[in-house]
Amino acid sequence: MATETKGPSSFARRDKLIDLQKKAQERWEAEKCFEQDAPEAAGDKTKHFVTFPYPYMNGLLHLGHTFSLSKTEFSMGYERLKGKQTLWPFGFHCTGMPIQAAADKLRRDIVGMYGEIYDTKEETVEVKKEEEEDAGPTDPTKFAGKKTKAVAKKGAGNSWQILESMDIPREQVPKFVDPVHWLHYFPPIAKEDLKEMGVKVDWRRSFITTNVNPYYDSFIQWQFHKLKALEKVSFGLRYSVYSPIDGQICADHDRASGEGVGPQEYVLIKMEVLELPECLSNLKGKKVVLLAATLRPETMYGQTNCWVLPHEKDGSEVWYGCYETKTENEIAIIGERSAQNMAYQNLTKEFGKVVEVCKVKGRDLVGLPLKAPLTPLCPIYTLPMLTISMKKGTGIVTSVPSDAPDDWIALMDLKKKPALREKYGVKDEWVVPFEVVPIIEIPYKKEGADPDAAPEMTDLAAQVACEEFKVASQNDKEKLALAKAKTYKLGFYEGRLTVGEFKGQQVQEVKPLVKARMLESGDAYAYAEPEKEVQSRSGNECVVALTHQWYIKYGEDEWRKQVSDHLANNVNCYSEETKSRFEGALSWLSEWGCSRSFGLGTLLPWDKQFVIESLSDSTIYMAYYTFCHILQQGPFDGSVPGEGNISPQDLTESVWDYVLLDKAFPADSKIPKEVLDKMKREFNYWYPVDLRVSGKDLIQNHLTFFLYNHCAIFPEKHWPRSMRTNGHVLLDNEKMSKSTGNFKTLKQAIEEYSADGMRFALALSGDGNEDANFESDVANAAILKLTNELQFIEKTLGALDSMRGGEASLYIDKIFENEMNRYVSSADACYAKMNYRDAMIEGWDKMQGARDKYRAMSGDQGMHKDLIKKFIECQILVICPICPHLAEHVWAQLGNSESIMNARWPSVGPVDNMLVRMNTYFDKTLSDLRSKAEKASAKNAITKATIYIAENFLDWQQATLNVLKANAEAGNAFDKVFMKSLISKPELAPFKSAMKLLMPFAAFTVDDYSVRGIDAFELKVPYDETMILGDSLEYMKGELNLKEIVLEKWPPSDEAVAKKLQPATPGKPAAHFQA
């Protein structure tokens, strides 16, 4: 076992598996088992080309990576066994900001720790000796430094310590301030860890991204030339999530948190302060406005007041800022967070610069008279609301109580509660005279109303909804949420304006029109902020910026339809949920900024001041895999030319067109045609991608981009064929986290459990899009199970000559062989659907159970040697995709000279359903007898059982079965109406006294019908119960702990015994136990 409890001896089983794994991996490498080339001649294209999103190289691979890529690995193992040419290449992603940010953070941390950056290549760092608990001689050739007490307390958040936790030698850490160093350090380690796992990767086809690799750089430049020529790329001002520290857009892969969060666009309503309070007297002469962020500008006709946050929930002060805007002489009162966002949207005088004139307490803003646009009321007043969040919007909220339940209930609270007004110094004239202003009429129908009744028209939707959901105060959050959801949906989709310039028009039509009018008149600003908080990897909170950028025009109608049609008709997503997620992403995904000001990557070929961001240079790289080994070899960075001996400068656009788009051979090519033809042959053989495996979180970006770009650039024959997604993986039912210590790298998991033990547990962790769970106990148990099986196999193979031979004609032989055929077939179906947990249940658990039962039932006559050898062969082939190292070892023990990597899925005969029924009958009967024996022995000691077998059903049972059969043959349903009508069936009239037994019997039979079909209504079982039980008496005696079992026909000759027993029926014996 992996868990150390008794010293080194506790690791013997695991170490045995590790020894087998090393030997297997040495053989595979020597025989180049996973290096696959396209055949010279065109022929049968039974290939399986799989890819996995290349992992980001800012650290070591961990169980999160491993869980997802295990699906790819298991698929490779299965498809090899099915006779396909399989290819799995593996690259390493280095583009973007994560590595750059980590290098910059390390630089800052070192400066904080030591005051300067040391170059370990050129300098010897001398450090003054200080007293330490572990004081010792100092090596003057090593990098050394004294951490301050503050740094020592900083813990795992320190970049230096994080790198040291990855077993990076202390003297090597300073080298990581150079981002390029990461590119050369981590990929080789990842490769070695994956090889230790035993993945079936063709390592000739590996590379790193960015312009450090000139071959990949050329390929990405070609891709973007194609996109631009196809008019899929444009330039302009766009909202994007932006990192102020980095000074550029912060895409999903550049974020420490907030992946998938995009800009949320608002309208900032200018509400002019008509009379300044004393606390703002320094702003006299300025136009002072409160800026309220709204998603519904069309409702501004109904403003009755404005809300501010007087204090935090704990009573602490809330501070608003008074900021200069881009408008001359204008001061905006808003929260600090929104001011930061405005500064990057050209809403201040200088991009990125916030000018704060002064601060003001939230409580001092209560009672300001305001002039608000569109509303007929003037002035309206600022009032207190305690549910405002300063982390969303501006902290200023305009109030439209006619259509916003939050506003209506808050206004009613102030109107009805004088004490509440008094608490916040709210004068009656600021609230009491103000009535709701109706502005939108909607058709409203309450929950539970007659579905045929017409909805009632109302122009006070918020009030109606609050009354319907019984909202009593602002504290009824759940009820308010229901009211809001209903009113907003009805108002937007079915509402019509009853006031203003656009009176009579639908709300969803006038919303953009009202927004445009307010922007034109200067009554509002367009504004955006992140939907949720986003933290960049550089360590700052992101804002939304309005920047000039190159963007890809995802969401374009024709392009989206092309992708949507392919997804619907030609892509296997392995689950409806995954396909629905793709459809959802396609419905909202739109323009995507693809350029950055700096970071690692490829320069935009036509505008080299920009770098292509990390989610945009990773959409068609799967094509690069197909000929990567011809371009480059050895180091991942392309510094050594591959077998084609091609210079990167010779990879012109026309060369790429020839290889990838079947265009004419370029006459000016410096690359020999036969070399390009080989690249072309590799591409055309392996493409399209047959399977792409990924976490579900990439559907919203990478995987959908993957579809878009393939559909744009390549002909349809090269578009992806299937995509399999999964959820995140928990470790022992808790989220993996370095900070809590609940974390495992791939290397650590292999060292602790062995590769096969880890893989066994990964297969059982889960297969759907819900979060899976890697359990340490399961991995430890796997070590025990696999080594126990190995011991059984070695012992059995050594004893084959002494085992029973000849024809395998016994009943138990036939049952066992049929069970093997059954579970090999069911495991096959599970593998084909990529349901690996189920494959292990069918191909391991149930196969093991069938073998154990056969061994126990064989008794003195023993197992048949041909069958048990067949079992070992089938078992080891079926689990080979999951546990290939053990499989390789056993395969050789079976006398095979070739590697199991060249083997084929086991060939088994058809499943005999009658034998399945007979075996199921025996198992259910034994289980029933075991339960009855336990009850009988609890009263008195028992040593004997008489089992009574019935040839026919009782009269009432036969009549019931005939009624049920007739109903099924007529094509009628077994619904509640039918089941209630059984009592009145004339065929059952003679058996009214048995109705208490008849109805449960009918219900059980109907359930059985859903499984077995019409056979459920047969009047006799089609097998010999006496033979089945008679052949297994010795086994049954052992299982039931009895000395004697007698089989007799029902009914018993002793009437007293008959009265005690539930009557036996065909397929369900009765039993009498005796001392």
Task: Give structural notes.
The chain has 34 helices and 30 strands. With 1075 residues, it is α+β, with helices and mostly antiparallel strands. The strands form eight sheets. Strands 6, 7, 8, 9, 10, 11, 12, 13, 14 and 18 form a ten-stranded mixed beta sheet that branches. It has a four-stranded parallel beta sheet with strand order 2-1-24-25, covered by helices on one side. The longest helix has 27 residues.
Brief descriptors of the model:
four-stranded parallel sheet; 34 helices; 1075 residues; disordered N terminus; alpha+beta; globular; 13% strand; ten-stranded mixed sheet; single chain
Tell me, briefly, the overall form: globular
Work out the number of β strands. 30
Number of helices: 34
Strand content: 5-15%
Roughly what is the average pLDDT, rounded to an integer? 91
Percentage of residues assigned to helices: 40-55%
- What structural category arises from helix and sheet content? alpha+beta
Termini, distance in Å?
A: 45 Å
Biggest sheet details: 10 strands, mixed
Residue windows where pLDDT falls under 50 for at least 5 positions: 1-9, 119-156
Radius of gyration using CA atoms only: 37 Å
Summarize the structure.
With 1075 residues, this protein is α+β, with helices and mostly antiparallel strands.
